[in-house]
């Protein structure tokens, strides 16, 4: 499953934001690449919300290939987190400095399970005790 959003930037260039979903032994991974900013419409992160509704064993949002992550991205990830908590779906986020720095500065890292690699995020989701899942 893939989703693609294109936004025209102020300099006339087009920014492409893509996402695709992969299953890792019952854990859904949504891999996002591109720029997430206030001009992003119909974000591919909607795939993460759809995944939460299916109540997988866990969800990882992989933002490792995101090249710009503004306040809109923070809000989108926190929205996914709220739904995951509400539905009892363990969630982890993968992000390099481009993503982790804004999440840390906003304080969102206090509630998110943030990891530098997909392997670490998958391991974190797998360690959530089944009784915490709904």
Can you describe this structure?
Strands 1-2-3-4-5-6 form a six-stranded mixed sheet, with helices on both faces. The longest helix has 17 residues, at 71-87. Helix 1 packs parallel to helix 2. Mean pLDDT is 85; it is low at 3-14. The protein contains four helices and six strands; from the N terminus they run βββαβαβαβα. Helix 1 links the parallel strand 3 (27-36) and strand 4 (58-69). The relative contact order is 0.16. With 134 residues, it is an alpha/beta fold. It has helices at residues 46-53, 71-87, 97-106, 118-126, and strands at 2-8, 14-24, 27-36, 58-69, 91-94, 114-115.
Q: Helix/strand-derived class?
A: alpha/beta
Physical arrangement of strands within the biggest beta sheet: 1-2-3-4-5-6
What's the main sheet like?
A: 6 strands, mixed
Number of strands: 6
CA-based gyration radius: 14 Å
Overall shape: globular
Strand content: 25-35%
The mean pLDDT is 85
Low-confidence stretches: 3-14
C-alpha termini separation: 25 Å
Number of helices: 4
Instruction: Give helix % range.
Output: 25-40%
Succession of helices and strands? EEEHEHEHEH
